């Protein structure tokens, strides 16, 4: 398995199961169930493909790794392309499944896309949405960079990262549906169309800011263990 294919499969899994839990099972499992589905999907992929690609499955993570000096930009770009492709494929498969339900409409029921404002979950404003996504991505990428550092116990990294994603979802689903991952937002939004595409900029820009911030903190060595 190539690293790019691993990133494609990993991102496909995260979006298909995570967004699928909201679209197909959301009324039965609620926010808590959706939160755990995203986190558990990430944990599974971390141990399934982590040895191949590092299981970034998120352009923000790849960007954070570049800023931290752990990855070349040329490889990160290839990762990002594979990640977005995986998210698009997952959203398409999810849409095909959801369309099999008689009363499903992507315009009415959505595809697990992120958003904010009137008519979307808690109806938080754009400033709240932007702050949440930037801060949550910063914390998420910081945990990832810390948990995968040479000083951290390697066997625990996937579990720690997945549990962090669960915690972020538990707090933020009502605000934005939680992105912290541009690929996860792009896939469903392109098929949901309309309003989702119009709001997509936030779920690209805010995670970029958060990821760059986390990468810069790690690059400075402020979180390195001291003798």
From TrEMBL:
UniProt KW keywords: Cell membrane, Membrane, Transmembrane, Transmembrane helix, Transport
Signal peptide start-end: none
Database matches in InterPro entries: Aquaporin-like, Aquaporin_transptr, MIP, MIP_CS
Any GO CC annotation of this UniProt entry: plasma membrane
Localization of this protein: Cell membrane
Major place of residence: membrane
GO MF term list: water channel activity
Membrane topology per record: Multi-pass membrane protein
PANTHER family linked: AQUAPORIN TRANSPORTER (PTHR19139), MIP17260P (PTHR19139:SF199)
Name of the protein in its database record: Aquaporin
């Amino acid at each position: 398995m190539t690293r790019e294919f691993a990133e494609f499969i990993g991102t496909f899994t995260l979006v298909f199961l995570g967004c699928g839990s909201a679209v197909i099972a959301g009324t039965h499992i609620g926010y808590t169930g959706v939160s755990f589905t995203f986190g558990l999907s990430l944990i599974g992929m971390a141990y399934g493909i982590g040895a191949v690609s590092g299981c970034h499955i998120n352009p923000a993570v790849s960007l954070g790794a570049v800023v931290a000096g752990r990855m070349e930009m040329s490889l990160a770009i290839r990762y990002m392309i594979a990640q977005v492709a995986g998210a698009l494929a997952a959203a398409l498969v999810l849409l095909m499944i959801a369309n099999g339900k008689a009363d499903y409409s992507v315009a009415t029921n959505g595809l697990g896309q992120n958003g904010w404002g009137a008519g979307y979950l808690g109806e938080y404003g754009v400033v709240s949405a932007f702050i949440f996504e930037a801060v949550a991505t910063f914390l998420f990428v910081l945990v990832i960079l810390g948990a995968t550092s040479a000083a951290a116990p390697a066997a625990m990294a996937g579990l720690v990262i997945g549990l962090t994603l669960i915690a972020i979802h538990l707090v933020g689903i009502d605000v934005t549906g939680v992105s912290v991952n541009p690929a996860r937002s792009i896939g469903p939004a392109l098929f949901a169309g309309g309003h989702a595409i119009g709001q997509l900029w936030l779920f690209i820009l805010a995670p970029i800011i958060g990821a760059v911030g986390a990468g810069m903190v790690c690059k400075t060595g402020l979180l390195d263990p001291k003798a």
